[in-house]
Sequence to fold (359 residues):
Amino acid sequence: MKRKSKLRLKFKKFTVLMFLLDVSVVAFFIVINTDSFKSFWIPTAMTTMSHKYLAYTLYDEDTVNKVMSENYIETPTEKINLDDIVIGDTSEKKSYSSKYEREIYTRDEGNEVYKIIRLQEAKFKGYLTVIYDPSDVSLAVSPKLGKAGYSVNNLCRQNDCLVGINGGGFEDLDGWGNGSVPYGAIIKDGKHIWQHDGGSGGLIGFTKDHKMYLTDKSPEEAIKDGMVDAVEFGPNLIVNGKVSKIHGDGGWGTAPRSVIAQRKDGIVLFLIIEGRLPGYSIGATMNDVIEILLRYKAYNAANLDGGASSTMSVNGKLYNKPSAGGEYGGRTVSNAWIVTNKKKKLVPEVIEKNKELKK
Fold:
């Protein structure tokens, strides 16, 4: 009798297990066939360099193509108006129009160069670096272009910078890459130093007047317009205060992000979104990024290389949590946008404050 009872109990457990398995399978197929899941899964997979196969694992080519055609970005077509950027007084104010304006203008004690604002949203975390003087921003480039990339940390150390974020994209044929071969064009110190096939978007950079310049012109034409530092990437997210129209999620999925922007008063913003870290931060869509930029009154903004490349260095040390390569100090890249302390406006105690802020 006892043996029969045990057998019945085992059979019941097995039946329950099979039932739960059947329910899970049915639920799985229901979920993956919803439009919302397709719109999340396919663009997120297709914007990676080495995990595109995840889109085709669940869906056929026609489905993937259809979803991608429904998720795209319409960027403003008008030319950027540099006259709208008036670099002026960015000192603290007596009153503020919003808590975001207060965050922007209120300095950390002893630091007149930059401020780091911690972003903690429901689905993602990140950092917004506020650079008060745009003349402190420049482009750092791997000294071994075509042969080897450097981490943002190393590029910062070599250039004695305070803060740095990754810039443009690069060849990544094996899904990791070493940042040696940048895509598109690079302008450094007013010279067109690099050109390679594969660039997407337009030129993103700064003029000799320290105004952020977004253009589809050739590097030579852009240099004639006064551009001194630039990388080729995109898409542009805000142009002359006008926001790009995002269809679906824009075709860029949910991922770590790097963005550079400028306000009308000249303040430059470095935005880093952490992602692909389950339980901590899954990443942001382009709509998420634009929403943050508008809070802080970005007037011009462009997307930089994201994913595992999204890294931020402060005082020569990795500051954010990248989705890969964190144990090595961050992925090696081709170039980085950096903040240097040209006018010695920083006191040593700020380094300790940065440590406290990160906590």
About this structure: The chain is about 30% helix and 30% strand.
